[in-house]
Design brief:
This protein is mainly alpha-helical. It has 30 helices and four strands. Helix 14 packs antiparallel against helix 29.
Length: about 725
């Protein structure tokens, strides 16, 4: 890729970002678009103020950016939870890290690279950025010690930021757990592989007997789970019929007000249909009551139960200890919060989960292999100059001025990002099949799958396929020079990753805040319906499984290239600043918070950044070796060992706090409630929060406007 292609990519991405962000600032001020850009406020019935004057509503503004920067971390924690705050702190971590790295890279490394007179790039410029990268340093040059010193500084600065973030988020998590100590999951555990009691022909009495005996002072009650798929299907049918009755009743009342004979006939037909639907509804309700009776449910019992305790201390003890001499019986774990539970997955036998995991692993591997095709195609477009030599008809693109620059600079990153967009959703679907008991665990699993997929395909495969296409000709003619060509592969791909960061950041974040697909869908539905129809807000959950891995990949790319090609670092600062503003806006106005794990995403982020630091150091070990500087390679090995020891310390110091509830914190919360006299109030209805859907009472009612009576109500 030449300089013209890089400038073409930068110009297109910057121009597109400015246009999209300006369009968003205008559309956000239109009241008709509130269901797209303020769904969270509408769902909570908050007042939304729009500009009073017509002119100001149609002029671009940066008020939403100023508003985003005015939001404090405490406000995010209070309104959106610690998980959302972790996402914002990920962007802030990227800003802090790459701001310092940019100063080091541009002030120290860039002049050192460019002023090297004996570098290979002085004799033959094979790539546009080689003069600014480590490739311009000759073999055995003492200037490589400058790169080693910067590598040490960047590594230790990254480890310092990781330690600081872990310590601060851990403290916030402990305080946040205390603030939400009244949640039902603080008193509840999930028990699996409950043995069958042959004496009473049920598992429920077995649960009660076991915990009454082994936890006599803290055990309170239990909720056995049932295979309620058939009941849930009937509930869905009843809910659908109820909505149809409501719709027909509203239409009938509208037609009744008209004196035209045609409308009166329609009114009579609607009344007749309502009668038929109400009969079907009553039949379904009768079936549901029959299926929800005790004798029928006993036949559908699952070896799974939620067990509640009188104190948080009792629940913490029971969830974190081995309950039985047989380790595959009475398996306990902390209960997810009620809204986070995936009820259908609890019906999967625990012994079958290993087969689900193997199946998901195979499916992810197959997807990874097939994704190699678009990545290789993208690198083929990037290496258009080489392809012209092997395939002369490709020279036709030169007939149109500027087309070659657009094809090699902008198009590859757009194609790659388009393919990447669907990967998180595919991985989340696979994680669902693995049998996770909660939505949060499913999305954490998807988060890791997406990250490793991106590292393997987007990073490594881009390097390998790009260097292969670039060096294949010279490797056949000069086979002994292949190691040196491979050493420059990373720096040779720096310009491609700059375009990737530009496209993913400027274009990607701009389209994220604009939500063009949802906006078009809203416009289509608005024009297809009558003007007076009130639209429901388009409320979706924050996609952690999409945001965290993609941003972590950008951190990985930046770290690997921090010493090799420092010219990439300023682009990453823009990337993280724009992402910070965009997702602050999305968290405040758009995305709903459907669960709260109290920061359990942070250990995954810590692991991803640690992998980035290790990969940076391993890359430099290879480069120092190929640059004939063995002393620097050996010193970097020692640096790598220090990094590994640091990670082991962090795993011992911080990791348990994020996945376990300490007995000390549980006792402090219990003692606080005892002093305030809230313990008894917290115990009431704790287990009712975990009532499965098949046991919940039916309640299909309609609104009660002044002109209408209730449609149907069954409890």
């Amino acid at each position: 890729m030449n300089a013209e292609s890089l400038l073409a990519s930068a110009g297109i991405n910057i121009g597109l970002a400015l246009v999209v962000l300006s369009l968003f600032s205008i559309l956000k001020k239109q009241p008709s678009n509130a269901v797209v850009y303020y769904p969270r406020h509408l769902s909570k019935q908050h007042h939304i103020s729009f500009p009073q004057t017509t002119l100001s509503r149609f002029l671009p503004s940066v008020s939403w950016i100023r508003r985003a920067f005015s939001v404090t971390e405490q406000e995010i924690l209070q309104h959106s939870g610690l998980d959302a705050l972790v996402v914002i702190r990920l962007f802030k971590l990227g800003i802090k890290f790459f701001l310092i790295c940019s100063v080091v890279g541009l002030v120290i490394l860039l002049p050192v690279n460019y002023t090297c007179e004996k570098g290979p790039s002085r004799s033959k410029l094979s790539h546009s950025m080689d003069s600014f990268t480590i490739s311009n340093i000759g073999k055995g040059s003492n200037r490589l010690w400058v790169h080693f010193s910067c590598l040490c500084f960047i590594s230790f600065y990254g480890l310092y930021l990781l330690y600081k973030e872990c310590n601060e988020i851990m403290d916030i998590r402990i305080q946040h757990l205390y603030n939400i100590r009244h949640r039902p999951d603080r008193f509840t555990i999930l028990v699996r592989e409950i043995p069958f009691c042959p004496e009473h022909q049920t598992r429920g009495c077995c649960v009660d007997h076991f915990f009454s005996k082994h936890h006599p002072y803290s055990y309170q009650s239990y909720q056995i789970l049932y295979d309620g798929k058939h009941v849930e299907a009937l509930l869905h049918q009843a809910s659908s019929i109820s909505r149809k009755i409501k719709h027909l009743r509203q239409r009938s009342m509208t037609n009744k007000c008209s004196r035209a004979s045609g409308f009166l006939n329609i009114f009579r037909e609607n009344v007749s249909q309502i009668g038929i639907l109400e009969e079907r509804f009553q039949v379904l309700c009768h079936k549901l009551r029959h299926l929800q009776c005790e004798n029928m449910l006993r036949q559908k019992e699952l070896p799974v139960a939620f067990v509640s305790f009188k104190s948080r201390w009792g629940a913490a003890i029971a969830s974190q200890t081995r309950q039985h001499v047989n380790p595959i019986l009475w398996i306990t774990e902390p209960a997810p919060e009620p809204r986070d539970v995936l009820w259908n997955n609890l019906a999967i036998p625990y012994s079958h989960l290993i087969f689900h995991k193997i199946g998901v692993f195979i499916a992810a591997a197959v997807l990874t292999i097939f994704f190699a095709l678009p990545v290789t195609t993208v690198q083929g477009i990037v290496q258009l100059e080489k392809i012209k030599k092997w395939f002369p008809p490709a020279r036709a693109v030169q007939l149109i001025p500027g087309l070659s620059s657009v094809l090699t600079g902008y198009l590859p990153s757009v194609i790659l990002n388009s393919f990447i967009y669907v990967i998180p959703y595919a991985m989340r679907s696979m994680a669902t099949l693995e049998g996770c008991v909660s939505r949060s665990k499913k999305e954490m699993k998807a988060c890791s799958m997406v990250f490793y997929f991106l590292v393997g395909n987007v990073f490594f495969l881009s390097l390998l396929s790009g260097s292969l296409l670039d060096q294949i000709g010279e490797s056949f003619t000069h086979p002994r020079s292949f190691p040196s060509h491979l050493a420059s592969a990373v720096s040779a791909q720096a310009d491609f990753f700059i375009t990737y960061i530009l496209t993913d950041g400027l274009s990607g974040f701009s389209l994220e805040v604009l939500q063009p697909g949802l906006l078009i869908w809203h416009c289509m539905k608005s024009h297809s319906c009558c003007g007076g129809t009130k639209r429901k807000p388009y409320l979706y959950s924050l996609p952690y499984y999409r945001v965290i891995p993609i941003v972590s990949l950008s951190i990985l790319i930046g770290m690997v290239y921090a010493v090799i090609a420092p010219l990439l670092l300023p682009f990453l600062i823009v990337y993280f600043f724009l992402g910070y503003v965009v997702y602050l806006n999305q968290i405040q106005d758009v995305y709903d918070i459907v669960y709260e794990t109290c920061g359990q995403y942070w250990p995954y982020i810590h692991h991803y950044i640690f992998i980035a630091i290790v990969l940076m150091q391993i890359t430099m070990i290879g480069l120092f070796g190929l640059k004939s500087k063995p002393a620097a390679s050996i010193s970097t090995v020692l640096l790598l060992l220090t990094t590994l020891l640091f990670n082991e310390y962090c795993k011992m110091r911080f990791l348990p706090t994020f996945f376990y509830y300490s007995i000390q914190n549980a006792m402090e919360a219990d003692e606080s409630d005892e002093r305030e006299g809230l313990m008894e109030a917290n115990r009431e209805n704790v287990i009712n929060a975990y009532r499965p859907p098949c046991l919940r009472p039916m309640n299909f009612t309609s609104p009660k406007p002044s002109s209408m009576q209730p449609l149907v109500s069954s409890t």
